[in-house]
Each structure stands twice: as structure tokens, then as C-alpha cells.
Structure prediction request, 386 residues.
Amino acid sequence: MNTDYKNYLNKWLTGIEEELNFWNDYMDTQGDIYQEDYQDTIRENKKFVLNDDIDDIYQGKEFKFIDVGSGPFSRCGKITEKVNMNFTAADPLAEAYNIMKKNKQIDNGVEIDTAFVELLGKKYGKNIFDMVHMSNSLDHCFDALCGIYQLIYICKIGGKIILRHAENEAERSEYEGFHQWNLSVHNKENSFIIWREKQRIDLIKELGNYVEFYIYPDQKEGGWKYNKVVMIKKKDIEVPQNSYYDDMLYSIYSFLLRYLMVYSMKPKKDLIIQNRNAIEKIKNGDFIDKFSSHCCVDVYGLGVVGRELIDKLQNLGCCVEKVYDQQDRKYKNIESEELAYNEKNKNSLIINSVMRDNNEIISNLISCGYSRNNIFLLQDLFKKGE
Prediction:
């Protein structure tokens, strides 16, 4: 990997937080002003949008399809009567998206694989899929040309690679966040071009020996305008030699360590102050009064805040049934338990007294049977009581 690509990879890594924040807000607001689009996106029974691109020779047969750079949902849908659909969705941020959807109890029937477009061959192998698709995501790559080689590599001979992207998206987005490449069909070469500063590649010249190109400019899907490029694979292709796998491993590892240093090395004084404030609010606030005197409630966390919370609940006449903690802890006559699945948990209320790692804790509680609507975060209860 040359220095330029290492710089682009590092820029991509720094854009992860912005991308996750976007999708988190999108889910929390149910699409914000695009609520109709949101409801369509999360439908489990959404029809396959590329149905017309399935050739008749596949009728009634298994059809292996992959949506690369799918985001948390995939906008493709997978319901079709034409073929027996074998649907795969892949994205570099899959792990985060799957947890995010689980925490928010959103399930559109699509589980995302973790995969980088630049390393698809290592993940899936050669000549695997009947149709390979990317939509508004190839521009996010740190090496779009390598990505296209990989898309062709994993596609079967005679299969289709379909790209749907807005014209020159990175230029319009001023190269912010993940937007690093422009894809163009409206250009002086009258070709399919990928470009950015210092690089301009004519893909028909580059790949014409391996795929047949069909270009459909200015398509529309709802309010989205895009260019559609279909490539039909004519023969096997080999991905140019590169050291991306090793270089990405080291770059991502270094980024992870720097990220952990920032977040884990914050002065412990901050946590002490946070806990003191929480204890003070528990003692003096009436936020907890929403739990009636005869209710039963579970508690996550038996640290200093959790102990104060238990005292408050018991003083109100609440029954504290189960108390969980990552460590074996005791308080008065209470011993902490290790989290484990129990079907009865779905009807139980639980308050999380831990003031950090909320998303991970919520995910663990849900996997142990608790309903998201019955999980209360102490910080949220504080806000409602203010």
C-alpha cells in the first residue's frame, strides 16, 4: 500500500464515528423527514429492487446475491418469486450496525457480514455470486479500483456486477467523512470514470477485457437520482498484488489503540465525580417514584451507585429481586448474579446503575431476555426527574 492509500485509510477510520452517529440518529428519528423512506427501508418483506436484472436462465434456481457496503439495512430488499434468493449483505461496520439494530429492536431480517470491499476475495473466494451489488458506497472506499477488481473476482462468469451511485458524490460532499471517490458517467471521456485529486481512471479501458459494460445514466428510485452501471463478467480476473491485508491490520490496530487511549485514559477523577453526583441525585430526587411501592425491579450494577439505588428502592417499598454485576459482589444480604438468559425476564423491570457502556449493557440485557421497553438507564431517569 503506498503512502497515499495509507492516508486515505486513516481518513476513512476517522470517519467511522460520524457514520455511526448518522445511522444512530436515522434510527432514533425513524428517518427524520424521510419517514416514508425509513419505513420502506426497514420492511422485512421488501421486494427485491433488482428483480428485472435477474436473467430468465435463473428462474426457479438458487440465486446468490451480495449487497456490498449495505449499511445497517440494505436498500435492496430480498423478496422475489423469480428465483430462490440466497441473500448476503456485507459492510465494514457490520458489527456496530448489528448491535445498534438489536439495541433498538429493529429487525428487517438482514444480518450484516463484516467485510471490506478491498478484501472481498479473502472473505468469500472466487466466482461465488450470481449478482454483486454496491449502492452509494464504492465512493467510501480507500481504494475504489481495487474494490471493483474484488467485486468482479467474487462474481461468477456470466454474472452481473451492478453499481448504483450518484454522480461525483465526493466532490459534492467536499470529501468529508467517508466520501473519498467520485464515480462519473457524465464526462469528457464518454466513459465510466472513477476519480479524485491526482487520480483519474477510465474503467472501460482498465477492465474491458474482463467485463462487458452497460451504462444507464440518471435513474431514479423515489427521490434518489443515480447512475447505474452493469458489468457482465466475461472471464476470470486476478486482483493486482497488494499488501492491503497486512497494512490494514496494522493501521486498524494502531487506530484502535489510539482510540482506546483517548477513552480509557481519562482521569478516574471524572468517574468519581460522576458517581458522587449520581448518589446525590438518588438521595435527594423523586425520579424513582414512578416505581410503585409494591413493584418488583431488578438492578444491574452493585457498585457504589447501585448500592445507593437499592437502598432508595427498598425505602420506597420496592422489592429488589435480582442484582447483576460483572464481578462477584455482596451488599447487606444481597449477592450479585451473573447475567444469564431467563424467559421470565421479558416481563421484568430492570434499572442499569452503571454510568457508562450503556449500549453494550443494553445489548447484553436484551440477549438475556429483557424487553428494551423495560430497561431503564439511571441517566434517563435523572433527566425525567429534572
